[in-house]
């Protein structure tokens, strides 16, 4: 099964072509350019350099959230467009679970974290078992204080992955927690992890179509929060 995977949930952007568990090619960019400029050219060049065409792809996968609202919309829109034009199924996967795959070979607890601002991180916790992540919590937006308390109660070493890993490490390390930063080349979101999650979805018969593919934000946008706050103030 050939899977074309897209990852644009944070500052870095990547695309990957995988055949079952095998990574055929991956492109990664973390230079501050907008994903609307980089993602689709990256996919086209990647396929061309592999001697493949879009019609060769069996599944289009994308990190559907949580993450940057703009980044998620770009990635999901690109995946929907590809899937619609090709008539292929989609996989919208958890950004956090896809990150956990990069450290699952360690067979210990994995703590993906993304900076959600406002004193919160997007987080889920996993346990690496035989090279695959086993979910311990659902995806959520959680305060660093609450996450620190939860990890202290767990009492086990944690591998931190994600673009919020350094923030989490610097904030919570002083509380006596056993936190370990994944190496930088394994720390950030990557399309390979997205493809690996998508493969598991395909095997479970949980794929969707382009119409059913939607972002999963896990939190209201700033504009929505401001609108609700204004409505609340008007009612007082």
From TrEMBL:
The gene is tsaB. GO terms for biological process: tRNA threonylcarbamoyladenosine modification. GO terms for cellular component: cytosol. It comes from the Bacteria. Residues 34-126 form the Gcp-like domain. This is tRNA (Adenosine(37)-N6)-threonylcarbamoyltransferase complex dimerization subunit type 1 TsaB. InterPro entries: ATPase_NBD, Gcp-like_dom, T6A_TsaB. PANTHER family: TRNA N6-ADENOSINE THREONYLCARBAMOYLTRANSFERASE (PTHR11735), TRNA THREONYLCARBAMOYLADENOSINE BIOSYNTHESIS PROTEIN TSAB (PTHR11735:SF11). Coiled coil: none annotated. Gene3D superfamilies: 3.30.420.40. It comes from Lawsonibacter faecis.
